[in-house]
Specification:
alpha+beta
Length: 558
């Protein structure tokens, strides 16, 4: 080829290339600025998946495939300028269409999304990720399916390289039409309407328990509404993952810097190990939160709980006197009955029962806080060693103040009256209240309640009901040997010897070193006439060094 021919050839090639470039709108290339790479990692730090996605919001909001996030404990993205950022939260996801929306801790240049679906035969471009000039591929819409009455699911006849999967499909104006999907190298390209995942948002605080979102360990976004975000914060505190809870608290504070809930939740995480940090958090709340009375009240509440459940003699920063002072400040700023009630509770805990009683009874008679002040007034009377009748009269008023018909809301007051009758030796009255409490709780009371009820029934010689209740306690908590031992003992008492042996065996299977079970089983065997077997059981218990064993052996060997 001579030089003239070479020049002509080069000119033709460059001209054709120029024609190809001009056929691709410049807006398509610009869309590449919003494309990102996504990498997800497991708990142990290994890479789970690498994929693509696209920014759709200025505050780091992005959409991509959902599958890479399944099982992920952490995720990072790299934007078109090469900047790496962490994924901070999952906003929403759909498993069927394999799409999700998430947020990254960065500002971003979002892509523009199409406002209307495309039609069959229209041309679009698949835009890849690159730091400079992104790879693009022209596609033609083969068919369009509609889902959820407004979103499009596109099918293209072409196959694409794996590095273009999950990349955005854009129209001639550079608007994002959808996210590409492909199951294998030979399959045609599909795309889910980008408007669908872009519309994901958290609206319910219960979403933290969503089965799909629970497949990832990355934090779920908080709802925008404060009440639902508060619910999400509470739900997060009930989860076993303390790291996720801490992240949720910090997110709540960022989202609602003028609300008390986040600061008090964070302070509570320090109680028991770092009172100074907890106090610092509440000082921060006093500085930032709008409702200062709520801050002082929460401050008092945290100190009060710390003093009740995590007392520390070396702690001089938080005391009941400080708790009372904070509650009084709340009352001075906003004289709500609940703040006066809080003061009365702290005064009670300080042992000043008469003063606390006066405050509780004033609140009760003002009918401002329902039944609880009557119950607390009764507790004050008990501490003041008042006559039994005065305590019962206050508990009667607590129950009378409950809404009718009675529901489980009345349960604590009926239970308290039953326990008061029980303590006073009025067992049948106590059992009446225990039975009513059991009915209101629909048989779902704690096993400790059935144990208390059983003990009362034994004292009232209502043995059949007592057997039923102690058996129910054992059923609710099958890992507590005391309940099985008591069941065995009562069966022995009423001469149900076989049942006594069975219950004792169950107890020994659970707690092989429980001496009472050996004794009950041995006595049941002896009462059945098998003295030899009974003595053998007692001898098996000798290594337990229980002082009752040897005298029983000596007695029955005679």
């Amino acid at each position: 080829m001579n030089k003239l021919h070479q020049y002509i050839y080069t000119f033709i090639v460059l001209s054709l290339f120029s024609i190809q470039i001009s056929a691709q709108p410049s807006a398509v290339q610009k869309a590449g600025k919003a494309v990102l790479t996504l990498t997800t990692f497991s708990v142990d730090g290994n890479i789970i998946s690498s994929s693509k996605g696209i920014f759709v919001g200025a505050n780091g909001e992005a959409i991509s495939a959902w599958k890479p996030f399944v099982g992920a404990a952490r995720a990072t993205v790299v934007d078109a300028s090469g900047r790496q950022s962490d994924v901070t939260e999952i906003i929403g996801a759909n498993e069927l269409y394999d799409v999700c929306k998430f947020r990254v801790n960065t500002t971003s240049t979002p892509a523009k999304l199409t406002t209307a679906p495309l039609s069959q035969g229209e041309k679009v471009w698949l835009v890849g990720y690159a730091l400079k000039k992104p790879e693009t591929k022209e596609l033609t819409v083969k068919s369009v399916e509609t889902f959820m009455e407004q979103y499009a699911y596109y099918i293209f006849p072409d196959a694409v390289d794996a590095n273009l999967v999950s990349c955005p499909v854009v129209n001639a104006s550079g608007q994002v039409v959808g996210l590409s999907q492909q199951t294998d190298a030979s399959a045609s390209v599909h795309a889910v309407d980008a408007r669908y995942p872009n519309g994901f948002t958290q609206t319910s605080g219960l979403a933290i328990n969503d089965a799909l979102l629970s497949q990832t360990h990355i934090r779920k976004a908080l709802p925008e509404a404060k009440d639902q975000a508060t619910l999400a914060l509470i739900m997060a505190g009930q989860q076993p993952d303390s790291t996720l809870y801490a992240q949720t608290i910090d997110a709540f504070i960022r989202q609602f810097p003028n609300e008390i809930d986040g600061y008090s939740a964070k302070a509570a995480t320090y109680i028991g190990n770092n009172i100074a940090a907890a106090d610092q958090q509440m000082q921060l709340a006093l500085k930032n939160v709008t409702a200062k009375d709520a801050v002082h009240s929460e401050y008092a509440k945290l100190i009060y709980q710390q003093q009740l459940y995590h007392p520390d003699s070396l702690n001089t920063l938080w005391t009941l006197d400080k708790a009372l002072a904070e509650a009084e400040k709340a009352w001075q700023l906003n004289p709500l009955p609940v703040y006066q009630h809080q003061q009365a509770q702290i005064i009670y805990s300080k042992g000043q029962y008469q003063q606390a009683y006066d405050m509780f009874i004033a609140l009760a008679e003002a009918q401002q806080l329902g039944s609880e002040p009557y119950l607390e007034a009764a507790q004050c009377k008990t501490q003041l060693h008042a006559p039994h009748e005065e305590v019962i009269a206050l508990l009667d008023k607590a129950i009378e103040a409950c809404p009718r018909p009675l529901t489980n809301i009345a349960g604590p007051y009926i239970l308290a009256r039953g326990q008061a009758y029980d303590t006073a030796g009025e067992y049948r009255k106590a059992i009446r209240d225990y039975n009513q409490y059991d009915t209101l709780m629909v048989g779902r009371a704690a096993p400790e309640f059935y144990y208390i009820k059983y003990q009362c029934e034994v004292k009232a010689r209502q043995y059949q009901q007592a057997i039923t209740d102690i058996a129910h306690a054992a059923l609710l908590n099958p890992l507590e040997p005391t309940y099985l031992a008591e069941l065995a003992s009562l069966n022995l008492k009423v001469n149900r010897l076989d049942d006594a042996i069975k219950a004792a065996d169950l107890c020994l299977r659970l707690a092989p070193n429980y001496p009472d079970a050996y004794i009950v089983k041995a006595l049941a065997l002896i009462h059945k006439g098998d003295k030899t077997a009974g003595i053998q059981v007692l001898e098996q218990a000798l290594p337990l060094n229980d002082e009752r064993i040897q005298p029983l052996i000596d007695k029955y060997k005679q």
